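User: I'll paste a sequence; please echo it back and then give the predicted structure.

Assistant: Echoing your sequence first, then the prediction.
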Amino acid sequence: MSGKFGDRLMYIGGQFVPGSSGQWIESVNPGTEEVHGRVPVGTVEDVHKAVLAAEAAQVAWAETTIWERRDLLRKVAAAMLARSAEIVPLEAADTGNTIGSLGRDVAVAANYLDLFSGYGTEMKGDSVPASKDGIHFSIREPYGVVARIVPFNHPFLFAAAHLAAPLMAGNAVIIKTPETSPLTGTLLGEICRDVLPPGLVNIVHGPGLPTGDALVRHPRIWRIGFTGSVQTGLAIQRSAAEVAVKHISLELGGKNPMIVCPDADPATVAGAAVAGMNFAWAGQSCGSNSRLLIHESLYDEVLERVVAQVAAIRVGDALDPASQMGPVNSAAHYQRVLSFVESARQDGAKLLTGGQRPAGEAFRRGYWLRPTVYGDVTMSMRVAREEIFGPILSILKWRTREEAIVMANATEYGLASGVWTNDLKVAMTFARALQSGFVWINTTARHFVGTPFGGWKNSGLGREECLEELLSYTHNKAIHVFT
């Protein structure tokens, strides 16, 4: 059965089409475990059809002016905002993110399109005085067909926002929706159908195998953008390398430290630590400050405040505006998150709140976990080293600056980090020493579009939310003219 939202088709070549295999993925409401929709499983054949449609549309699109592209991107943004009341409840039901937090997703996606629509004049090359009798310059040209593979935590936001850079650069785009939360992909397809030329944006559904792998291995897709786990990012690199030399950007996981210095205000940092864990999304965010490193002089006071605030979070139906946290996204991911609860117990972390399913009949089914805090955590524990991508906050204690820096950097990740202090010299000492692509000082879990976002180490390659993202969807071609 397809459920209350019915069957949602793929969008290829300006048409909504079923999959060639006749197979379907059932999308499940994570709060109830009820099947509420289906999407086709995209095959190698379906992906190839999408590539052919994209190639046909891209030639004419690359010949449009930056002003024509700008106007159409802004129309897409306006159409998203106009359908926000339809997008948000579907996304809440399909992901488990609370409806109260999701309105921002549509607004951020629209703003992203607006921003990149104005970047067109920045796609410029250089003139170099390389010889006395020649003119030497470079120009930027689109790749052609590019792929974007979207994660489950904010599927509409990531799919919609990241159309901006490749389209403005003159490319056609194929989006693969996440296996567990694919339904709003159809709404994005409807918006693209109403505004953009057929084939310029194509949306396929399906799991990593066969659908994602077919995209990564297609010999005429030279540029791939992926947001998701480190393990999948590594798999994409391996698979792509077996076919061709491809430009791949990876926005991967994080085990982000928030470092609290002894001069910080305990009430302020406690509130920031809880807000920065993104409990409205059940902690399922790569930017969550999932490690709270507190100086020993403030440890007890900050810990007490954090635990009180987390224990007071209202867990409930994602479609209820009063809910402050919904369920974990899927059955498989839920089991993974629960494995960290068990490992924390075995490793000797101190459970301060949460760690179990909420009480009551409403939580009998679904992927529920009360927001969880562990104290007395050390870097030898799994909850301190690995990305959980769930509603679990680990609290650690430090004594010296050098100790805090070592602890903060002692993971494979390097996405984001935070420092709380009123001493500018101390703040900059930490900022320079932290091995991460993004450092917050006296704030947390905020994005400032126009500045680069991306990770070091296994947290990724490339930068997004800035001009660098736009340029990454272009080739740089050098031209030498002699007279």
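The radius of gyration is 23 Å. The domain at 257-448 is CATH 3.40.309.10 (Aldehyde Dehydrogenase; Chain A, domain 2).
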